[in-house]
Fold each of these.
Amino acid sequence: RYRPGDRYNGFVCTRTQFIPDFNMTAYMFSHEKTGLEYLHIDRKDSNNVFSINFRTTPFDSTGLPHILEHSVLCGSQRFPVRDPFFKMLNRSLATFMNAMTGPDYTLYPFSSTNEVDYRNLQSIYLDAVFRPNLKYLDFLQEGWRLEHSELQNKNSDLVFKGVVYNEMKGAFSENSAVFGQKFFNKILPDHTYGYVSGGDPLEIPKLTHDDLVNFHRKYYHPSNARIYSYGNFDLDKTMDYVDQKYLSDFERIDSSYSVIPQQKRWTKPVQSHIQSRFDNMGAPLERQNQIAIGYLTADITDVYESFLMYILTELLVKGPNSYFYKSLIEPNLSGGYNQLTGYDPHIRDTMFVVGLQDLPAEDFGKVQKIFEQTIDEVIEKGFEQNHLESVLHHIELQMKHQSTKFGLGLLFNLTPLWNHNGDLIKSMNVSELVQQLRGNLARDPKYLQKKVEYYFRHNTHRLTMTMSPDEYDRKFNESERLNLVGKTEKLSKDDRERIFKEGVQLSEEQKSVPNTDVLPCLKLEIRNSSEKDDISSKLILNVPRQTVRVDTNGVTYFRGILDAKELTEEQKLLLPLFNAVINQFGTKKMNYRDLDQVISSKTAGISFSTHLTESIDDNGRYEFGVLVGSYALEKNVPDMFEILSDIFNEIDLSDVGRFEMLLENYMSDLSVGIAQSGHMYAMQNANGLVTESGKLKEQLMGIEHIAFMKNLTKNNSPEQILEKLRFVAETLFKKSSLRCALNYDTKSEAKTLSQYEKFIGSIPPRASETTWNISKNLDASCRQTVMNIPVNYCAKSIVTVPYSHPDYAPLKVLAKFLSSKYLLPVVREQNGAYGAGAKITTDG
């Protein structure tokens, strides 16, 4: 449709390529006047995506790109409304709307299935980034400001406020986030990566409004921008709009100032130690230590080498057959891998890291020694072919398994490479990368071992960082206090008067009623019918089965629900632990390593998760059990069901040593992420105070579950806990009611159903009938959970109506209006909290 060299709406086509792996065509364009690069992915997908991004490279930690990201969305020339971005939540059918700041880029993506909505959002996003108002008051609101603790009282204390300021205080309330940021800055010290792009709370108050305006003028230029679109909407219309309305107003500039050079490599490894806060929800104090060993590896623009590093990482750290799992995880030295572990392909010099959490500080040296011994072992012995094939199988399966947000996922994967002028077409041709790897392996059986030697043994750009709890909170609070004193003690009388007036003025501005008539909106067009799937239900061997015949791109999906009605109260509370470990044991036929090998080489994995859902007709009833899921290529469906049958009938829960290690890792992971997901925990906690089903969810997924597990491990040995899990498995797999769902291509129906019935036949038969548990409303009460973090989270829960009730839809709309019309303006804009919202769940 578009040919290289031809001109279209101010753009010239530079490259076209059909990508068979994903059945799509990539078109690359360059804007003739400004040099802006444009990538369009043409694909039969109604969920269309549009995005514009800028390479943003700050040279301080004031959070400049992050605060600018917030500020440009506070009104523009064409849409001079406070926060048009949030106000569009009420008048858009977007399937995704956001903006985000990375370490070296700022991205503004959205998606929609409605073309009118798509064009509306396109106009708002482009006007925001190219013609923002960037008002001083918006900077004070979104960035930082000094404000009186009592707004109308000039004599009250001055305090720091600001949306991003508070957001970043929250972001660094999690030890893992502090560790990750410090590690990143330390291993890449010489350029923009040596700073905190999101903003360090102690540095943010150094930023001025002039800095913000100048940064926008420099970096938000079309010559430093890239536009991405995806889907089936009219590309000519998009290009014409972008060119005529915005790009034609600019002249081309040299944007090489934003290019990020490679990090100058160290001549010898570096060691560093940092401090963290004590986590009162985590492991004992003496074990709240972390270590990470990392290397800079391939240049992101070397697509094949980056792909190769991904393969090596999977082989080295993922699953019980990987080298580092065997040497560092199975000996139970720690609470398992920390969140830094893995391969980061999103920065100019890509990074490989292995890290451990919750270990004694005296074991730091031991871990480093084991790490080096493991690398030597890999170089000497190499990788098993079956292990490599399972990794390549996973890649093949993921190419076939495509979600409804494929276009967004593709954008997020391509943006970092594109940001450094990498070859996007090559990166999307995954099959060619696999074939290149296979060719290299065929020519040299020790190919991967030599790569390990190159990237690890002979790589001197290695950082070993350790972290231990200390007086982090006291030191941070003291630094923040001194920061405030340093700002306030220099203020003149006129300065104080100005700050008071600005606070009042901002408050009045926030409370003013905006004229939203300038914003685009949609007509109410509700289709009388929706697309229907080919769904049928049957009772097969006394087990209810739902089937959906649909184009699945050669993948078959299975889900089953095991009713937990026969479990005791304690056994029910054990289900999260059971679900986390049950697929990590062996069976009577094969050990856990062999089973993991078979699972990863034939399926996408076998998952177990807690299933708790309320009746759509009566929120006084709920169903509770375990959800089992898997999917596989059509050719591997027999293997998938055979694996499921083995787990159901032959699971071997006798290895106490392995369980002790799995339990230790589970306990460590429980407390990770609580601070950053505090709003979710607060909502779950509040929900647990109003209904019995909510209370059970809190006991299974909330703070109460952590308390339960701590008490369980304190009063029971690993062997005793494992014995309890054996009874859970026996009850669920041998006696529980089961119902299943299958999604598959019509052409594979006969084979799929035959293998499914064979699996069902292997389970002892039992009449299946959904059992509803009774959920009573609880007396109103309040609860406070005290944690050692500098952020507070609040939630309130109210019982309303079930999903099928006529009032449910109006309440869902009301929740959206409460969020955008009241909570966001009052809680976020006026009071500086990072976020606020209301929602109604399907249980009412």
Note: The CA atoms of residues 84 and 140 lie 18 Å apart.
Amino acid sequence: MHLSLQIRAQKQAEESIYGWAETANVKVGDVRYHLLRNGLILKGIEIERGSDALVIDHMLVRANPKLLTSNAPRIGTVAISGLQAELHYQGLLDTWQNDEVLQRIWKATGALHVDDGIVALYLENEEAPPLIIDAIQLSLHALREDRVVSLTSQFHGAPVQAHWLRSEKPASVSRGELTWRDVDVSLLSPTLPIGPTAGQLAGTLQWERGESGSGGDRLNGSMRLKHAFEDNRIQLSGLKWKGERSDDRWNVAINSSAWPLDGWGAYLPKIEGRALLSGRLDGDISVQTAGDGLLLKGDKGRVRNIAFALPSTLSSGLQRDHWRIESLDYRAIALDTGNHTLDASTLKLSNSSIAFQPLGAQNGNDQQRPVWSVRADTVGISTLNVVMMLPEGDIQLSGIGGNCSLTARGLSDIKLHSSDSEGRETDPKWSVTGELLRQEGSVQNGELEIRAEQVPLTQLRPLLPFGSPASSPLSLEGTTSLAVQAKLKHGKWVMLGKATSESVLLSYAGNRWMAERVNSDFGPVGMGLDRQRVSRLHAEQWHYIASLIPLPFQRGGEKADMVQANKRSWWAEGMLAGRWEIDKLTMSGGTVSVGQPESEWVTDAELRLSQLTARKLSTLSMHGNMGEGQLKLDGSWSPLASQEKFLGNIELVNATPLFLSEWMRASGMPKPVRGRISASLQVSQGDQPDQYAGKVAINIERALVEHAVASNDPMIGRIGYNTIDLLKRLESENGKISLQFPVEGSWSERPLGLHTLGLSMQKALRESATRPFEVASVSRPVSSKTATRIRLRERGALSLNERTRLLNVAKKMRSDSSLVVDLIPKWAGDRLDRDTVQRIKHTRRLIERYLNYRGVSKQRIFPMAATAQDHAGEIASIWVVLSSAK
């Protein structure tokens, strides 16, 4: 009998459960009913509501199947094991609560126990991985209209506990508490993007929820975050909140202590396309729901360790474009995420750094949406570092401070300057004033006045036409002062201004150019211009030191020499690459040396050049002293053109060859001892636009070199004779050498330069050196007489006695036009040092000047080089030797 009752009860249970399941849209795999125990076992239960899913492996229900499936169910206890749930944020509030059938079962249950449950919880971002909560142990007990629920679970091994009370009484309050410990935040951050991204999290959350007509909902709690860094530093953060909802609006008071703001960038305004990447908040703020957004307010507080980043740099890991603020203090701040407004009474930024590419695409100047309105009455700035990243390198402004105002239009009343409290007196000083205007969420227009003092030129190198440090072996030294008017229009910068540089040094491939001062007026220069214009460039007291390049024993191949001759100068390449042009270039008080600074070839040089551009010939003039003679250059020059050209005249009058001593010695030739050189080059336009025609004339008087024949004398390989033999072959009976030859060719195929001039001169020398010659030793002229001796001096003028003696020499020379005078230095001491050489030059200059003053032309005065045979055991002096011989 019992068996038949059990069979019938089982059949009735199946019919009831399966029928109910079909009506309730629930799948039940297996039904077992124990009549005597009044126990119903359900297996393989599957429930889907929208995107939510619930699977129960085993459920034991203490209830009669008919009472379970009726419209007024009565259930004793329910025990569930093997629960698996997939829940989605969008359906948490409505999907299950609005299911009347399931709600009747839930409310009718007197007790519920869940063992070994697991829930995958998808939050608002459906693409993010779910939060997995497992090891769930849940118990529910019904006490009349109240239900008490307790929960223990784990989140990746971290304990999570909760308990709450829900009442069905009218005007009742439901309340509960949730606690968690040692939660790995990195497992939460992919799903919860508005919190910290690393560390161990612990906290508690209490809530009260009033039923209809019972009052507002309340929420309070706290969280603690512990983050251990690789260097063993520990960062502790805390967050407390207390909130209440009334009239469907939440009001939450939050106290933050170094709480990370990672992931808040989506809710805050961007700065030039850069979103908040990280930061830590200290202070009290109130949060109020307002429509679709939040309204945050705070009387005062501080945000530390702020970083803003371009979205395009996050995936690449590049941090150079990040903007950083060590601390930002605020007062009376209001942030409305719905209306996209940020207002503050005062903002104070300390130790900030920003970097941007004014010529690049990653400036955040794309139109950003939504467009925020940001206002602040006063923005104080302390120690701001600005880095402008240019293709040729970075420019940095360090230690800037001051203030400005933030308005809906942008940054106004900007007043920034270098801090006086930090650094040394020689550190760069910057000053920036003006305004920057926003358009479509980014700065697009504005005007700035920029002044600077004592800025190292190396910091401004990316703005100069010298190429990048990696591509150009250029060394740059000196400091500069600037006064610049910078205008920003439609996102493009254009500047005009003045610059004064001091103690300038340019060094390139062994060549050096120095100047005590360089003044320039420039502009417009900047972005989107066809050319970068310098209206005036003036260098004072300049000195160019060229590398000493010996003349090879034999000239190179024609093709290799032509390639070198056609090569454009490095500075011309830099100007062309940057599209630079100079209207007027002047240089005064110049010196040109070769090899060593004291080896001066040209002194007192003055240079003028106008319209230095690739579009046409520039007008060039230069004059100075070369080898104690006069050097003049006048013509037209085109160093920036595709084919470099020069049309004009170069003339050297009555120079001594002594300045060539070091170069001739390095080339294997004997040093010059005496002589006067005059030379000229005339270049004019040829018959065709690409052709030139010129003439070279060289005159040398009384040439004398040291008697030293070297096997590596380059004249042997080039002409067929050593230097001494060549001079003797070229000399006329009166001791003069005259050489004239034409130069002509095409600028593109045979450019006129030192190479072409050298080839033409070698040809003329070979043709002129035709008469036989027998090597003879060099000796002083036979018919010579030492007229007087003038002691060497370091400074000062000639004495009265010395002037009297020189006056007698001048009288003799005026009375006899065949007489010439040799100035032979007699030096004392162990060796011929630099100081002695300078004393010889100074004394010799005094003698020449006096004789010129007394009517003796420079052409009749022959300074001689100091040689070993001129070493004297007596007082060092200049011997003034009269001679009528060649």
Note: Confidence is low (pLDDT under 50) at residues 773-782.
Amino acid sequence: MKVKNIFVDGQIQPLGIDNLLPTFHWDFAEAEERGTIQTAYRILVSETRQNLAADIGEIWDTGLVRSNRNVGITYCGPTLQSRQRYYWKVQTWDQKQQQSESPISWWEMGLLCPEDWTSQWIGHSTQSIGSSSSAMPLFRQTFTVKKDIKKARVYICGLGHYELRLNGNKVGERVLDTGWTNYDKTCLYSVYDVTAQLQVHENVLGVLLGNGFYNVTGGRYTKFKNSFGLPKCRVQLEIEYKDGSFDTITSDREWMTSQGPITFSCIYGGEDYDARLEQDGWDKPGFTLHSKWQKATEVQAPLGKLSAQKHPPLKVMQTLKPVNVSEPLPHVFIIDFGQNFSGWVRIKVKGKRGETIKLSPGELLNKDGTVNQQASGAPYTFNYVLRGETIEVWEPRFSYYGFRFLQIEGAIPKELQDKSNEQAQLLDVHGQIIYPDIQKIGDFSSSNTLINQTHQLINWAMVSNMKSVLTDCPHREKLGWLEQVHLMGPSLMYNFSLQPLLEKIIADISDSQLDNGMIPTIAPEYVAFKKPWDIFRHSVSWGATYIIIPWRLYQIYGTTQILKQHYQGMKKYIDYLTAKADNFIIQDGLGDWYDVGKERPGFSQNTPVALPETAMLYHVVQLFQQIADLLGQREDSRYYQNTAKQIKQQFNDHFYHPNTHQYGTGSQTSQAMPLALGLVDKANQKHVFQHLVQDILKHDYHTTAGDIGFRFVLATLRQYGRSDIIYKMTQKTDHPSYGFQILNGATSLTEAWDGPVVGTSQNHFMLGHIEEWFYKGLAGITYELNPITGTTHITLAPYLEKELKRVSAQHRLVSGLMSVKWEWLSNTHFQLEVRIPVNCHCTVSLPAKSLQSVYEKAHSLQDISAIRIKGYENGRALFTLASGHYHFTAEV
């Protein structure tokens, strides 16, 4: 047994955290021996690497703890100190008492107390709050380093966004930093290790600012206008020298500021850059200040508390090259990147001073071949004014868009430069794809092209909408609509390691909660819907994220910390809902948003709004009762258990029709949600499920469900053993289906089932629920933490569709990598290869002619010590596996 990675608060070597009770977990490399399990661990924490190497944990030493647990272990040592780097490692023992030790790792604390901040908030005194056409400010400060440096850190919060410069170079790779929040409640700061970038003698710190969501003032397209204040920053550079002395360089009125070359900055409208306004060397030593520079103004601090940014930073994670260049109109050129994505472009140009290049991104094209921004927010442009001296390279800094096509005016792409040389020359252009620097922990493929294309379609939409919140779309709104977080949460979490980002989203929800307990549909709530649009401000399936996601994080990572932190907020929300309900029925909300009916998608057409609203109320009350029980809140647990019973009774009295054995209107959502959420009495389940199946067949294997109901349609079909119906749904290519989108040219999941049509977004991930079935259904992987042992229990029950030749999936659990690969050898025989991570157990359900028809490497199951037979039911062999690598063959 070998420890592979060790994590602090879900991160490897986080720099600058402010959690005084961080949690630890670790995973394992694949073991050669089956049944390998951890039986004990020891965590050691020290201020020095040398002590740890000698097994001295003077800060914290758990001693040998007899436990299988490798997740959710909370630090219990002395109070952690600001700025301190802590080194740590874990030792583990397996069932044979063989010891394994992780490599030494570390985490570093941020600034934990307000008194740690000695810097001031600064801004530019002449910038107008009401105009995004004002040039964005630059800030600089010179300082001298005279001694050898041991370590140096920059702590910075730049609102709305910033770029940090040191001695002429950008510090780090972050973009669109810091993360979006309700700035009246929380402002995030980031930490940089700049030890290697400082030099003895003169140094210069520089900062550029952009508006971001802090200051949305319009000027072009905007979803809304709102300002928390003028762009501002707070910067603190702390240097520790090798002789033990310290220096601190802080932002204050002695810093110098000037208007910079960014002349327009809007998160919705785009960004303009006038290269003629560049000041060479402004962020380097030796720069001569002139009249454009003045002293910075110390400004009022934002209302929000400074907190360390926990979620992974946004970066340019991939680049795209053009696949086609065209000229639909004279001097109007279109770049096709072949893929809808979220980010910006990087251009290399050459031309005359003062020439302007206008870049208009878009998802679709008009009939005349030009870019269409009708559904994505117009006008949105990047404009670049050439300096005109040599080859120039530029990319935006503080605004991004979702697009596939780029319209270019004012420059000729290199592919067409033989036509004219009168305009500027576009020598190169690349699409820069931006999303968080997160671990990819899942992968899926099959022998079916359409399924693989659907998987890619959804994954592109997911990464396109991952920023510091999970957005609905990367252009028109860029808002954190909450329903998709829990409904698409399983799909996201099969593919990406999202613990820190999801915890940040839960904090956003807490900051957005109203005094009466209501959770808005959006967090941060940048748009507070008012009459007549107030119906959009609250809906149970949106607010439910505040309960569902913390519970799911507990089920995976084993930490109760997030449940404890938000317990009172959750309770307040549950009480708001039950008080709002009419005899436990929620009468208003968005219902099954964007379902499929005769009318244009939007409000629920097929299902009474009250049905999904009340079904979700029951679900969150049930979950909260379990949370209360887990945390020892016995009185609350009993109260909400009784509340859940009353909701169930009223739900059935209100929506169930005993004569027809149907709920609500009989729609797919009306049947699926009660079945999936446990609202249907056992005696009625079969009949209700039959109605669901009949409705799907009536619609020729198409769904009528929307944003809320579709996940439950799929979950119910899988739960009741009808994944064959889901498979047939995946193979449809007419409306509404994923295949229809793909057949009509979509490269990321679209907002509506209509596919690539003008009028809807071409990059939404809210209807991508089939992704969960790829992992849970076709690969058969489900799992959750065993709260008693602290280990992960896996259920493996793949659906072996005869029309599929093979399926392959892998997913990194908290204990290690799991993989599943099955393939049909003939019409009656298949093979299955599976890897179960160390410290996990697995219950397997395989289709088989009999128990005797299942073999592991030509051996009968009863002959394998790592396998325990449970029985044979409904045509499936049931058995358990210890950790390890297995090869099965079976006859069906």
Note: The chain has five domains: 3-109, 117-308, 314-436, 442-777, 779-891.
Amino acid sequence: MNTIQKRTLRVLVERLRLQESLSTWCGHSHGSLRRAVRIPVGMVGNHAAASDNNHHDHNRRSTARLTHSWTNRTSHRIPPRSSPNYLNLSHSCSVKRNVNNRHYSESDNNGEKNISTLFIPVPVKVTFNPDDINIGEELGASLKDKKAELLKVLNSFYRRKEIQRLAAENGLDELLFHQAFVSFRKYIVEVECLEPDLHIVLSDILAGAGHVDDIFPYFLRHARQVFPALDCMDDLRKISDLTDPAQWYPDARAIKRKIVFHAGPTNSGKTYHALESFCSAKSGVYCGPLKLLANEVHMKTNDKGIMCDLVTGEERRYTHPEGIPASHVACTVEMTNVNQPYEVAIIDEIQMLRDPARGWAWTRAFLGVAAQEIHLCGEAAAISLVQQLAAATGDEMEVRHYKRLTSLKILDQPLESLENVRPGDCIVAFNKNDLYSISRQLEAMGKECAVIYGSLPPGTKLSQAKKFNDPDDPCKIMVATDAIGMGLNLSIKRVIFNSLIRPIINEKGEKEMDRLSTSQALQIAGRAGRFGTQFEEGEVTTFLSSDLPTLKEILACSVESIEAAGLHPTAEQIELFAYHLPDATLSNLIDIFVNLSKVDNNYFVCNVDDFKFLADMIQHIPLHLRARYVFCCAPINKKHPFICTMFLKFARQYSRNEPMTYDWFCRQIGWPLSVPKNIRDLMHLEAVHDVMDLYLWMSYRFMDMFPDMVIVRTIQRELDDIIQEGVINITKLIRATESRSANGVTSLPDDDIERKKGMGKSADSKRKTKAKSREKSQARSYGSSDEEADGSQLDQRKLSSVSGRLSKELIKQGLLSEEVLDQLHREWKSSGMGKAKGSKGGGSGRKKKKK
């Protein structure tokens, strides 16, 4: 076939496609369109004649275009609103979109986020003509020299209220309509070879034989290319429908389950009774909130002669030497196997299903575990919600109430001074700076103390707990964060709250300071007094006298009933979303899913900010969706730069299909590592331990890419011993840190991997600034009087800059009065804070600055 034949055939094909397109949009029959758009009979049979008679057929084609344009305009132009055809046209063009529009209206009325803000425009791919033939120009006039006129026509189209109204009925709100129009206008002006049907319509309008309304079908077609979600909103809503999550677990729904709720406070024996049923069953699973608790159940069950495996995110410990799964398993709640049948299941701390970050794991375990008998242990506040969930699943439920086995007394006297501590005391602080300062002052008094906080490795926590519990050990005092609230068995006589203000994560995922809740206070205070120990009668008080009435008020309140359980989008649901929106990022898919999701009053969608943070971090790395999803589920501390850097390296190595061997891993973390010399060294070792946890977590999901889990676990135990040695000598580390701060030394330690790997001057500068701030804030002094105690408390929080926004905010919230503020000014001046400015280090610093 020669060039003329190809060209003529392409013109014919495009004309036929144009007929079909017009038939779709205008409702004409195929025959009527053939009458409107005339095709010369001899075109196919005689290519040469068609070429020679091109000029003679011009008038005939012009007549055909005018006929087609008039027919199209009169049939598809938007009639006036008063016309009875107006509603019919709107309905015929957007039956499917009306449903979506109702959904948007409902979302807006409910105050939900407008979903259209989450839709990211997709660049429209221009299809190139391989024969370089502009079919539009063959069928109509050229538009190359008419750009200005085209822009006027398009702007007129954009301003028409009828067009905006019809666009809204097709799912394009004001924002989407504007974005789609900008893309459509750019496409028309910049693309040299438009689609023939669009080219002809624009030619007709410029020639006065068309109307701007004729553009709408082509604009809508373009808008659906720019926003592919418009074509699948119903499907997306169906996928994100979370109103009946119980049906996600057919194995659990196929059996009749009995729910036994053990409700009671801390130290009431509720978990003990549940574990008796667990051990007496032929098979069972224990689902705990922490690795420490799962490990404790694993060890105790095996000590009784019952084979029990341990399964956590970072470890699989099989009792059978050949790795054959045992009949019993203790696991963290996220690792619950919902496909394995059990006789008995225990879900500990069931009230955690309200947790905004991890609540989905408890909901999944409760709804999905296929056990004949399920024992729930936790606060009575969860009973009402669990009863509603059990009614929805058709499960039988029994509630057993428990009381504390030992008494818990709220003292009328605060501690007021560290000189008043006695054996069995546990001082609870909600930040590490307080914890370090208290430990330092106790050591100066000659009193040895154990230290526990959240970022310590599990082995170090157990070592410190054992040291504190040992009656023959001289360590009789503990300083801890709220990490003691669960997971550790401690022989505590008296719990002392250093403060009642703690950092929390609000519903928006933002960190803010708030008063301790009743549930949290009871969880921590309940650690005082343990049945079967030398301290069976527990006591609780505060460090400051001003906090004691508040503590009594908090503990006197009843815990609010839990209203909803958490849910989280699954990998399968996100994959279905990605099928419909292939160009969207994972973070964007999650955003759209959460905003489109529909839940009933018993559920809520958990906070996904951490997931999105990791998704954005590795978005530039080429990964398959399932692998990307798994990476984003990794439990890491996103606040630590070194951990985030290693996370990125893992993802990049995986994308290159390069296994992360032991040698490669040791080079990245700088192994072997030495004993910490100061607090910053200790914090870095804790971060390296977390990175090892991340490697082990990945090794169970990508075994071929993380092949050396055994040897990495071995060096992790060695690192745990190094950290334990550092914590035992923590007061020496604090003194070293204070000495570095006093001497103005802010450089990173020699073995700091972040500096070695060159993470950038800006990042180092930020870390140094934070280190200075942190080290300076460790000089808190505890006096014997109320005034001194109040002053030291506020001094630690850096309220010396009282003229700033913080002091105004504290006064506004009623946490501080102007009288107390003036008193603090006087105390700071009298305590010699101004002398520091004249110190040697400070003077040299000023001299250098002047130079």
Note: The domain at 408-556 is CATH 3.40.50.300 (Rossmann fold).
